[in-house]
Amino acid sequence: MKPVLALVGRPNVGKSTLFNRLTKSRDAIVADFAGLTRDRHYGNGKQGRQEFIVIDTGGFEPDASAGIYKEMAKQTQQAVAEADIVIFVVDARGGLSAQDHDIAKYLRKIGKPTLLVANKAEGMLEGIQLTEFYELGLGEVIAISAAHGQGTRGLVELAFESLHLSDEPEETEDDPSVIKLAVAGRPNVGKSTLINTWLGEERLVAFDMPGTTRDAISVPFEKQGQKFELIDTAGLRRKGKVFEAIEKFSVVKTLQAIESANVVLLLLDAEQGVTDQDAHIAGYALESGRAMVLAVNKWDAVDEYQRQLVQRSIENRLPFLSFANMHFVSAKKRQGLGPVWASIVQAHKAAMCKMSTPILTRLLLEAVQFQSPQRGGMFRPKLRYAHQGGMNPPVIVVHGNSLEHVTDTYKRFLEGRFRKAFNLSGTPLRIEMKTSTNPFADKESS
What we know:
The protein has about 450 residues and is of the alpha/beta class. It is built from 12 helices and 17 strands. The strands form 4 sheets. A 6-stranded mixed β-sheet has the order 2-3-1-4-5-6, sandwiched between helices. Strands 8-9-7-12-13-14 form a 6-stranded mixed β-sheet, sandwiched between helices. Strand 12 (about 265-270), helix 7 and strand 13 form a beta-alpha-beta unit. The longest helix is centred in the first third of the chain and has 16 residues, at about 65-80. It is globular and about 70 Å long. The chain starts with a strand and ends with a helix.
């Protein structure tokens, strides 16, 4: 599993700038005024061959008792609970504050591995200005400048060392005959109920309270001779007779489960339709290249009008999942579950499909003959041959000349032809264009 780094600190110390630096993105909103980030924000980072997850949080006031600051504190506490290591960011130029002391006290109390980072330390990396931060009792102060990229690589290396990780991930061999299936979705859509129904037992305790499990639970399962590993991301664990409720479901565990799966079953709630959270989970699964199946649960609980609204919301909000088979089910009443299995097996088969170069090339040339790509400037793209560049998800590499002018519309046209020929329902398909270089280009320019 990817290690998880949570960035915490008071407002306006540069957490979002550090987040953007670590994830090499501009996903977190950055501006020079306090309190901009109010919710948790998740991103992927990579250093060497080791990938990791970064959580950006809002300004943290552990003792906040009301209003938006209380909600921000809850978000940060959840991020800390999900993290493997906490990066506590302070302002090297602004100096130590009472709020820093409060946050340090909270972090010492929970005992989570913590790195103390003084941001905005450009030009003062060797200065004595940082000595006051040792008062926080969190060990060595690491001086960085997130805005200028100074010290950030060393920071990640120290985080890996604290977690006893190298930047080389462990190689693990999975049994290719076992389909890893992640059941993902918002809290309280019926994920644990669905798996319990499949297993025919109360293997995972279902409870009518949203967001009550933090850890992904793996359950081996076999159906009609096919071995599965079911990964439930939001059930409820029982400790004796006590139910432990977590306020927010664990986003990190959902992301990690999606990454480790072969197929993702995205479960939607017919009573609530498609929400932003559903779209984010679906988008992450697509970005990870996972085969997918859609299932709309609680179908028995809605009338015909509501059913039409749900179907319309799926078409409008999840158009990028048009390749995935969709099923309408009731986990509680065991309705419509049979066809779901067929789609899961089909999606896995499609994701692992092997496509021969001669067949791909023939399909490519037939597509070009049926409809040529649009001319780009003085040149018309010339598509010569294609071969498979990877599986899970399938990747098709097309070679030719002037392929940088091939439009997204034409790529979708090619995708449709390839999907139909190889029955690639249930899996994303990526098409890469590789333009051949002109060996005479240098001679012509000289």
